Structures are given as structure tokens and as C-alpha cells.
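Hi, here's the filled form for the chain we discussed.

Project: internal
Contact: R.S.
Residues: 678
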Amino acid sequence: MMKCREFLASLEAEISPLVDCRHHHHHCSMDALVSLIFLCREQRDRKLVFRLHSYLCRRGLEVYSSFGNQIISMMIDLGFIQYALQVFGKLVRPNELCWNSLIKGYSKCGSIDQAFFAYDLMLRDDIFVCPNGRTFLPLIKACIFAKDLKRGLPIHVQCVLSRWFERDHFVASAIVEMYAKCGWILEAQNVFDRLSIRDSVTWTVLIEGYVGCGYGEEALKIFMQMQLEGICPDAFTYVSTLKACESIRASNKAQQIHVEIENSGFLEGNVFLSCALVDMYAKCGLIGKAREVFDKASIRDVALWNALMTGYVEHHRDSEVLECFEKMASHVIPNAVTYICVLKTCISIGALDMGRALHSDIARRGILEHDRLVGSTIVDMYAKCGSLSKAHEVFDTLFVRDIVLWNTLVIGYVDSGYSDEALECYELMQLEGVLPDAITFTCTLKACGTIGDVHKAVEIHIEINRMGLLESNLVGNALIDVYGECGLLFKAQEVFDGLPLQDAVSWNVLIARYIQHGHTNKALQCLEHMQYEGISPDVVTFLCSLKACSDIGAIEKGEEIHVEIERQGLLYRDPFIGSTLIDMYAKSGLLVKAQEIFNKLTIRDQVSWNALITGYAEHGHSEQALEYFDKMKLTNCCPNAVTILCCMKACSTMGAIVKGQQIHAEIMKKGLLDEDLV
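And the returned structure, exactly as it came back:
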């Protein structure tokens, strides 16, 4: 570095400019200048580059290709594209190096339009320059980054015509990657099949492509084919293959690959590979195996800690997340991902005080200013922990307030029952120029339904139509719900009929609202129509339909639904289904059937016990009601106000004053006297 600076200083000290290059000593000076440019480029000294550029400019030497082309290439490498353009404009004759540097510079900074504009200009200068592999490679990379196949296809054609597809392996691999990343996986496979050289890099690109397009099984087949052809996978290949296993939850295959990785020696000291293994095991539900990989790792950086903590968060292992956070604090500095994991745990366990402490730590480290996701998570934490004023306070301090952040605040208000505030946020975000999305509209429509503001719902409906978001089932279902909630069932039906896709959720919302407003027969007609359309009812559909049958005493229809529930095995998987069936049969006086269902249940919760006890009490079987009350107390299921009311009625009916006094004592003991009905 000192040698470069000393030489430049000696050049700058020259009094007279360079004269005719025919003199030998000036030939030496120019050769020395070229050498100096190469040294500056290697050492990446920005100040020295500008001093050198200034020296060349003062002597008018930057117009010569031997200097200008090198200066442009050097400046672009250092990120000074604007200065490089100034030099480029003065060049008498830019060469391939110069054009390629310019195209590469634009591509690196994401200016794809400018990169292709420079390429077009280069083609017009085809007498003196000709595109080569170093021209095509940055253009293909730019197309990959922008997922722009419209521009990428002609480049592929040009590579084939100019034979750079055959001559440059990096260009060929990049074309495979371009098709794969843009979702044209079959074309990526076709290009791959025509390659004369297929090394581990190219195979990895293809595997990544299949994984990215959602074809995990095919990716694993490609991995096996690679090994059959005698190509040894490298660390990057294994990472891509583990992602394939993760995508299809192929835990057995993943464990085989894990053994292979350990035998290959790649795992030793490779944090990137360790992270991939931890992440894969966590996603496959093998969180214990993820911990084993973590414990064996010789290097545990913040990325590896985060991979484990993210797995624990996904599996709701709150205590392990907090344990990891405490341990890692003495080894590595937490980053944004770490804090997001711990903040999510605070949300899960309602730890507001810990959330506040984390907020202070994040603010002290300056992370809040640079990471929008952290800011959004802090707002979410305060909102979900019941501190909405603090959530809004943090929101107001954030410099960038995008749609994700606004939605977080709106959801917080809606979930906490502050519908007016949620609608106020909706108005403010639009005044700030932030366009609502499907999530915003879903939440604001829910707020309208909660307070019965049908006029605001109609306004939002008009805005949804204007933005073309009615095709989203999420928004469409929210509209059906809000109109149904407000009693405008004809509007709910109108929106439903206009949906491009009527899924099970759409039908469920419509059926539920018909039942809510007493249109039970219409609800059951919807059930029949739904099945006729080939939409399979889910648990929610059955629950709504059984309630409808119960309300109008349509026991035959209820029995048909019961048969379908048994056929799908839902009775043993969902306690709500069992309770609703017991309630339906009990209300219809079919207590034997209700008892049969109750006996079949593997899980008997408060609701199922109450349904049976209520059925016996309502139909004059007071002794059985009290008998089941006693049985209920012997289990881990505690009676509530509903149970007490039924049993008091049973005591009253049969004049069981002693039993009534016992129940009274229990009411006092459990503090249920505060319940108005009791």
C-alpha cells in the first residue's frame, strides 16, 4: 500500500505533463501507471483510487482505453458507478472490459434497465467489441434477481448462437438457475440435460430449483441421480437437499443424509450446514434431534442459536426459548432474529415485563431503527399483552410504517375489542398513503361487524371492489360474515354467489349467519347444496349443522350428519363434535342416544358433561342428572355455573333439599355466587 502511495506522490510531483509517448521514459511512465491501476484495484483503497483518477484527469489520460477501461472497471468494483459513468463518457473507444464492467456494475446494484440499455449500446458498437461470457453472466444474474424471463430468454438464445453456452460453464449454469428461479423448472431440466459438463455447482442449482418450485421429491431424485453419476455433493448441495427433505417432511431420508454429511467431514466447523440440519429437524417435528446437532456443533454463532430458538418457537417450547436466550447472551450478541423469537415467546406466555426489558435492550442496541420486522413484533407484543397504548406509542416512534406494521396495530385493536380505534387506524393509514391489503380489509370488516356499523362496511366493500380484492376468499368471507352479522343476509348471499371460489370456510360463514338469525331451514339447504357442489364439510360445518338440527328438532337430518361424522372418525378426534351431538340428541329427548355418544368419547370436557346433565334435568330425569354431577366431580373436570344451574333445577324438581344445600355450599366454595344466573 505504501509503495502505491509513494509512486503516486512521485508522479503528482512531476512539473511537466507527459509528452509524446515516443520517448522511452514516458513509455515507462505509462507502463508504471497501468501497473499502479492494477495495484489499486487489488488493494481496494478508495482514497488512492480518487487520487489516481484526479492525476489522470489533470493530464487528460483518462480518455485513453489503456487507462480509462481499467479505471472504470476499478471504480465499479468499489461501488462508484456514477464516477465510472463520467469516465466512460470521455472514452474514445470503450473495449469489452469497459462495457462488461459497466453492465456488471448496473446488475450488481439491481438496475436491470440500465444494464440492458448498456448491453444494447454495446451491440451497436459490434465492429469494435463483441459480447462474451463476462457480458452475459451479469445480465443473466440480473434476470434471476428480477425474475425477468422476458429479458432472459433472448440472452439464452444469444448465448447459444455465439456458442458461449458451450464455451463458458458459468454461463450455462446461470441459465439453468435463471429458469429454475423463475419457475420454469422443466426448461431448467432441459438446459441441464444439454450441458457437456455437470459439476456439483450445476447439480446444486437444479436441486435448489426443484425445491423452490415445491417439488421436494423430485429434488431428492436429482440428488440420488447426481451420486449415481459419480459427482460428489459439496456442502451447498447438502444444504439444498436438506431443504428438499424439510419441504416434504422426509425425516427418514434426512437422517440418512445427515449420516452421509458426518461421514464426508463437511459438518466439522461448518455453521451453515449445522443451521440447515437444525432447521430441517425442527420443521420435521424432531426438535430433540435438532438439539443434538446443536450440542455437537464446534462453532455456535448467532445463526445457529437462532435456528434452534426458531424451532422451539414453532413448537411452542417457550421455556426452552428463554433458556437458549439466557445461555447465548454470555457467548454471542443477539441480533434481530433472536429478539423476534424471544418477543414471540413473550406474546405466547403473556410476559409483558420481559417484553418491556427486551424493548429497552433492542432500543439501546439501535436495532429498532434498522429492522422493520422487529418494530412490528414489538408493537404486536404490546398489543397482545394488553398494553395497546404502549403499542401505539412504539408505532408512532417508528420511521417506516409499512402495511405490515399498520396491520399489526389494527389486528391488536380488533382482537382487544377496540373496533372504533381499529377503524380510525384504517383511515389514518390511507391518509399516510399506505394502501390496505386483504388482511387490513378482513380486520376492519370484523371491526364493523363487532359494532354493527353496516354503513362503514359498505364503504369498505366499495373500496375492496375498486382495488380488485374481492377475488380473495379471505376478504370475500369477511364480507359475508359482516353482512350476516349485521342481519343483511341477502347481501351476504349476494357476495357469496359472486365469489370465484366458494370453499368450506365460505359455506360455513353463510350457514352460521343463517342459523344466528333463525333461518335454520336455509342453513340446512346450504349444507345440502355444499355437498352437491363437491365441497366436503369440515368440523365447523358439522357443528353449525347439528345446532340447526337441534334448533328445529330435525332429528332425521341430525342422524344423517351423525353417520357422516362417524364415517370420518371425527367423533373421537374432536370433543366439540361429541358435545354437540349429545346436546342435539338430549334436546330431542333421545337420552339413550345421548348417553351412547357420551360413553364413546375419549375426552370428556366440561361441555360434554353439561350437555348430558342438562339433557337429563330438562326431561325430568333428575336422579340421573345428579348422579352424573357426582361422577363429574370425581374426574378432573370441574363443574361451572351451567352445571350448577342444572343440578339446582334437578334438586328443586325432586325436592332434594339436602342435596341442594350441598350444592349451595359448593357454590360458596367455588365463588360462583357472583354469577347472576346462579
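Let me know if anything looks off before we file it.
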